[in-house]
């Protein structure tokens, strides 16, 4: 399999090729197969699992270590890396890492890599993700006193859902288009 990527190391590529050959394996089996240290293979397995190439089946006996299964190239891993990071990518990354968060947490932690976020921009993104079923409200907002607190309940992967100008949301991890995004959130009053 010829896979071109700018963010997988040579060891990751070697483990990926071996995973495609073995189909199911443990980290110890992988280390023996590729002739590398177990800790090095675990690091590559973790990277490839995050990229969507490997899964860890839920119904397994952990006495001999975690068993991993090769599932093929993932959409998220095959896209080429851009140098420019978007505001949505920063916000989505913070949401995936934090257990509970509010828009101010997101604004502070996602304002990096030359991106400055505004309160309204973060609140709007959270509101749209809430309406689409990605977030759950943990604590409601009290204007002037406290921000709403959310929890990410639909983590589909590292690519953030993108809100289009049309009333459509595109999830790059699943390829799903959600078309019931309201044009104007305040139209409910009619």
Main sheet record:
3 strands, antiparallel
Tally the helices.
7
Reading side by side through the largest sheet, how are the strands ordered?
1-3-2
Low-confidence segments, ≥5 residues, pLDDT <50? 1-6, 75-81, 184-190
The level of helicity is 25-40%
Secondary-structure element pattern, one letter each = HEHHEEHHHHEEEEE
| Outline type | elongated
**Strand percentage, roughly?**
5-15%
Give the class from helix and strand content and strand pairing: alpha+beta
| Distance between the amino and carboxyl termini | 55 Å
Task: Please state the CA-atom Rg, rounded to the nearest Å.
Answer: 20 Å
The tally of beta strands, per DSSP, is 8
Mean pLDDT equals 78
What is the strand and helix layout of this fold?
Elements: H1 10-22, E1 24-25, H2 27-34, H3 38-50, E2 54-55, E3 68-70, H4 75-78, H5 87-97, H6 103-110, H7 119-131, E4 135-139, E5 149-152, E6 162-163, E7 169-171, E8 176-178
Antiparallel strand pairs: 1-3, 2-3, 4-5, 6-7, 7-8
Helix pairs in contact: 1-3, 2-3, 5-6, 6-7
Task: Kindly describe this structure.
By secondary structure, this protein is of the alpha+beta class. The chain contains 7 helices and 8 strands; from the N terminus they run αβααββααααβββββ. The protein has helices spanning 10-22, 27-34, 38-50, 75-78, 87-97, 103-110, 119-131, and strands spanning 24-25, 54-55, 68-70, 135-139, 149-152, 162-163, 169-171, 176-178. Strands 1-3-2 form a 3-stranded antiparallel β-sheet. The longest helix has 13 residues, at 10-22. The termini are far apart. Mean pLDDT is 78; it is low at 1-6, 75-81 and 184-190.
């Amino acid at each position: 399999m010829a896979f071109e990527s700018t963010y997988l190391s040579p060891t990751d590529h070697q483990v990926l090729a071996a995973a495609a050959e073995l189909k199911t394996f443990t980290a110890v089996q992988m280390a023996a197969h590729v002739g590398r240290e177990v800790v090095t293979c675990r690091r590559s397995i973790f990277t490839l699992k995050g990229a969507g190439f490997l899964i860890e089946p839920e119904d397994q006996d952990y006495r001999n270590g975690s068993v991993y299964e090769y599932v093929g190239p993932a959409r998220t891993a095959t896209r080429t890396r851009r140098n420019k990071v978007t505001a949505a990518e920063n916000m989505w990354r913070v949401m995936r890492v934090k257990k509970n968060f509010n828009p101010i947490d997101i604004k502070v932690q996602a304002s990096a890599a030359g991106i400055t976020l505004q309160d309204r921009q973060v609140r709007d993104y959270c509101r749209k993700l809430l309406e689409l079923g990605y977030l759950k409200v943990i604590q409601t907002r009290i204007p002037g006193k406290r921000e709403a607190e959310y929890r990410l309940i639909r983590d589909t992967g590292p690519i953030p859902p993108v809100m289009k100008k049309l009333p459509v949301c595109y999830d790059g991890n699943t390829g799903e288009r959600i078309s019931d995004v309201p044009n104007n959130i305040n139209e409910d009053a009619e």
